[in-house]
């Protein structure tokens, strides 16, 4: 042998049913460059050489080779049963204390949908080797992994779980991978009081303590992206987002969690779309509902379909931000896919600027944690153990740090339970599937785990899920650039360099809607106000004229007090034009209801005075002068107080109705919204026109009552005017002019009321139509009633300055003429009767002569 010959004397006792014996070993430490020397077998026993022929046994045994002592008959080995060849050419010391083994039942998917075991199993074995060598962690125990290939198939996993549970030795912990398998194992484990620690399960459904009471995982839940997304939404002041998801359990539960988190943060999900295989309709709905900030949850294959439709709908660019999952391949959008009809250039254009969130599975900092390895040193050792395999072709390579830290989390937790169990008189090796106390201690230890691992800081939340960092990246120029990361354990959002949006400021979360009130055209308002002011001035002139000449006989016979009421009512109606044109441009919102009241009361009372006084005249003329001939002699003298009382009744009706309206359902300001309009030059803004109205809760009901009552008066006025068009009386000498005014007012009012209701959304047209109708009605009324009187007095010189005697004489003469006229009429009737009697007598005489 290299290094010279060696003689090694070893004594291992094989005793019958002995539990303790003295083992004496005499050996010489000599270093060999290629292995270890042969060891003598124990007395009453032998050595089993695994995998070697008799010729190979006489040679130097290789490094890491293990021999096994055996006994003959009924004797048993006292002491270590297996020895291992060390690199320094010696065998493991038989004097070292024997360690008790704790077994871990593991399921590593070496094939199937997610072959994560290809890298996760070597990583777990690396961790086990280091843990078992540590003297400060489980010094009296050795962890051993018993594993099977689950193929990421729940059906296969069911069979393997049965084998693990019903085959010796007892497993103290189960370590499954793959979400579907972990769901099965975690749900069944509580029946055997087993802790389940998963290294590769991301389904949000597993974060359910009622369903999975003993489940932990070092792989963060898929919902871990959501706190990061919410932090970004708040950072960039987005309060409205949209979502589109592939219809699978993992994405549905992730989106449900996101919906709850954004609701708590005061953020609204305005659009929520889903699809099974074809995303075309869902993407069109996002476009139609003006989605801007969009969270996409789908697998990589479907992502290509989505963004092909995104390109077709032009749902990309600086106005839009897409949030995607970060575990796609870096060139996922450049991979040719026969299921889409978009080119690589089109896909590259559509995905530009999207943001990804990816769970950090490898500590980005150079920190030595519990295993005394940095993340880069771990990668180097893992690559060595994989034998140079391509990481991209090795399943679970990204998750390997999670499997490594899962073993360390378990080892540290078991180490933490040794003291509490010893205080209770228990040991870890006493565990069995009926022992809840040991399970509870392991649960408490895992639940309070906190250490630095190669995947980052390891800590579990209340649901047993890993709290980790999330990396934030944005696609710029065809490659991903880091924006920052979110530390879930501390709740910190950190940035790489500048924390501003890469390339430009973040876009708005929706089309900016600028609310703009529509105000009345000031030119129109001023023009109409001038005409209204002139009308009021004209009304003052007419009123002054009528009062000044109230003792003139011709004015007296026109019932001047009623004409005065007409003039005052016309001026009040004209005054209503001013509040009709006042809007939010002139007064504050708090003052606007007062303006509404002025509109209503001025117009209502003005109409009652002006139209009511004219209606009273025409009604009295019809009542007195359309009686039957035999009752004409019984006509009474005109009593003015009855006319005034009639106007008063109409006025009281209006006052009461308006008071009831304002007490029961007062007018207030309402805002009408119109279809949004896109201004020129800025496609990301919309103008929403607003218009203020005076309204009440039951506006249509009140308007129906008022319009119905006023409409009946207008129709009745037209009828009375028509009936009395041929009547002539000196008591009301201007009733024909009143009838003409009633015609004009009625026609204008009946046209204006419905038209203004139709044009209520067009402030200029509505105001112009209503105000001009008022102005024309007033002008016509004043001109028809007062101008002829002015003309007559001017042309005939009948002024109040004339001598009163003349007026009295004229009045007496006129009264005598009227009495003579009536006397002549009576005499005429008497003559007609006499003539009739004479004609009848002559007719009788004629018949008598003919008979003779």
Q: Summarize model confidence as the mean pLDDT.
A: 81
Computed CA radius of gyration, to the nearest angstrom: 53 Å
Query: Please, how many helices?
Result: 23
N/C terminus separation: 195 Å
Structural class given helices, strands, pairing?
alpha/beta
- Counting DSSP E segments of at least 2 residues, the number of strands comes to 25
- Approximately what portion of the residues adopt beta-strand conformation? 15-25%
Q: What is the share of helical residues?
A: 40-55%
Low-pLDDT stretches: 1-33, 630-636, 800-815
Net shape: rod-shaped
Summarize the structure.
The protein is an alpha/beta fold and 852 residues long.
Description:
The structure is a single chain. With 852 residues, the protein is α/β, with parallel strands linked by helices. 46% of the residues lie in helices and 16% in strands. It has 23 helices and 25 strands. An 8-stranded mixed beta sheet has the order 14-13-15-16-17-20-21-22, sandwiched between helices. It has a 5-stranded parallel beta sheet with strand order 9-8-10-11-12, sandwiched between helices. Strand 18 and strand 19 (456-459) form a beta hairpin. Helix 7 (280-288) crosses helix 8 (300-313) and helix 17 (592-625) packs antiparallel against helix 19. The relative contact order is 0.06. Residues 1-33, 630-636 and 800-815 have low confidence and may be disordered.
């Amino acid at each position: 042998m290299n290094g010279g010959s060696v003689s090694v004397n070893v004594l291992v006792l094989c005793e019958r049913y002995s539990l303790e014996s003295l083992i004496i070993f005499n050996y010489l430490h000599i270093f060999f460059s290629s292995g270890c020397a042969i060891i003598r077998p124990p007395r009453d026993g032998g050595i089993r050489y695994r995998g070697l022929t008799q010729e190979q046994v006489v040679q130097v045994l290789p490094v890491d080779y293990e021999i096994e002592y055996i006994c003959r008959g009924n004797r048993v080995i006292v002491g270590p049963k297996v020895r291992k060849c060390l690199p320094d050419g010696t065998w493991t010391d038989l004097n070292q204390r024997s360690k008790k083994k704790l077994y871990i039942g593991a399921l590593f998917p070496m094939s199937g949908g997610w072959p994560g075991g290809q890298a996760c199993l070597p990583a777990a074995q690396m961790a086990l080797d280091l843990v078992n060598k540590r003297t400060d962690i489980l010094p009296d125990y050795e962890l051993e992994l018993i594993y099977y290939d689950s193929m990421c198939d729940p059906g296969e996993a069911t069979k393997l779980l049965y084998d693990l549970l019903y085959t010796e030795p007892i497993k103290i912990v189960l370590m499954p991978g793959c979400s579907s398998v972990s769901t099965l194992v975690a749900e069944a484990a509580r029946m055997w009081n087993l802790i389940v620690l998963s290294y590769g399960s991301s389904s949000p459904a597993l974060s359910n303590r009622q369903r999975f009471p003993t489940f932990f995982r070092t792989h963060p839940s898929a919902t871990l992206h959501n706190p990061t997304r919410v932090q970004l939404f708040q950072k960039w002041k987005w309060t409205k987002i949209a979502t589109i998801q592939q219809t699978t359990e993992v994405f549905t539960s992730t989106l449900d969690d996101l919906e709850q988190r954004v609701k708590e943060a005061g953020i609204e999900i305005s659009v929520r779309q889903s699809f099974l295989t074809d995303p075309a309709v869902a993407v069109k709905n996002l476009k139609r509902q003006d989605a801007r900030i969009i969270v996409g949850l789908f697998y990589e294959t479907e992502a290509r379909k989505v963004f092909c439709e995104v390109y077709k709908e032009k749902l990309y660019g600086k106005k839009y931000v897409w949030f995607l999952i970060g575990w796609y391949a870096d060139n996922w959008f450049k991979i040719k896919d026969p299921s889409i009809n978009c080119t690589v250039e089109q896909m590259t254009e559509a995905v530009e600027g999207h943001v990804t969130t990816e769970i950090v599975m490898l500590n980005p900092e150079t920190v030595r944690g519990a295993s005394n390895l940095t993340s880069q040193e771990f990668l180097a050792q893992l690559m060595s153990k994989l034998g140079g395999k391509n990481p991209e072709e090795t399943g679970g390579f990204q998750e390997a740090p999670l499997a490594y830290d899962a073993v360390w989390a378990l080892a540290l937790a078991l180490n933490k339970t040794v003291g509490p169990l010893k205080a209770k008189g228990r040991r870890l090796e006493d565990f069995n599937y009926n022992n809840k106390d040991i399970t509870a201690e392991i649960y408490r230890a895992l639940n309070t785990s906190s250490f630095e691992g190669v995947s980052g800081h390891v800590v579990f939340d209340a649901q047993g899920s890993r709290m980790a960092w999330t990396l934030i990246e944005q696609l710029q120029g065809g490659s991903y650039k880091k924006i920052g990361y979110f530390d879930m354990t501390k709740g910190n959002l950190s940035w790489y360099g500048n924390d501003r949006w890469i390339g430009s400021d973040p876009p708005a979360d929706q089309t900016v809607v600028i609310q703009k009130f529509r105000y009345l055209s000031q030119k129109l308002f001023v023009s109409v106000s001038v005409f209204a002011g002139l009308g009021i001035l004209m009304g003052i002139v007419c009123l002054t004229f009528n009062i000044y000449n109230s003792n003139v006989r011709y004015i007296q016979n026109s019932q001047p007090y009623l004409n005065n009421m007409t003039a005052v009512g016309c001026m009040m109606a004209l005054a209503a034009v001013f509040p009709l044109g006042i809007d939010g441009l002139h007064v504050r919102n708090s003052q606007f209801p007062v303006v509404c009241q002025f509109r209503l009361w001025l117009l209502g009372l003005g109409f009652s005075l002006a139209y009511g006084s004219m209606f009273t005249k025409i009604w009295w003329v019809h009542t007195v002068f359309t009686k039957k001939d035999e009752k004409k002699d019984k006509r009474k003298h005109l009593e003015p107080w009855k006319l005034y009382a009639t106007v008063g009744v109409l006025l009281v009706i209006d006052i009461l109705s308006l008071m009831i309206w304002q007490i029961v359902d007062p007018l207030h300001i309402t805002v009408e919204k119109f279809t949004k309009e896109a201004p020129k030059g800025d496609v990301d803004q919309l103008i929403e026109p607003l218009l203020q109205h005076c309204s009440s809760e039951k506006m249509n009901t009140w308007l129906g009552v008022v319009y119905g009552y006023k409409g009946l008066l207008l129709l009745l006025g037209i009828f009375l005017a028509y009936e009395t068009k041929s009547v002539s009386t000196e008591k009301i000498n201007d009733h024909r002019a009143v009838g003409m005014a009633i015609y004009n007012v009625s026609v204008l009012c009946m046209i204006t009321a419905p038209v203004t209701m139709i044009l209520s959304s067009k402030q200029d047209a509505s105001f112009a139509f209503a105000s001009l109708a008022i102005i024309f009605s007033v002008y016509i009324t004043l001109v028809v009633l007062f101008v002829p009187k002015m003309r007559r007095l001017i042309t005939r010189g009948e002024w109040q300055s004339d001598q009163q005697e003349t007026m009295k004489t004229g009045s007496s003469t006129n009264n005598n003429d009227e009495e003579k006229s009536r006397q002549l009429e009576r005499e005429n009737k008497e003559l007609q009767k006499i003539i009739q009697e004479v004609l009848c007598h002559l007719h009788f005489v004629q018949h008598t002569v003919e008979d003779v």
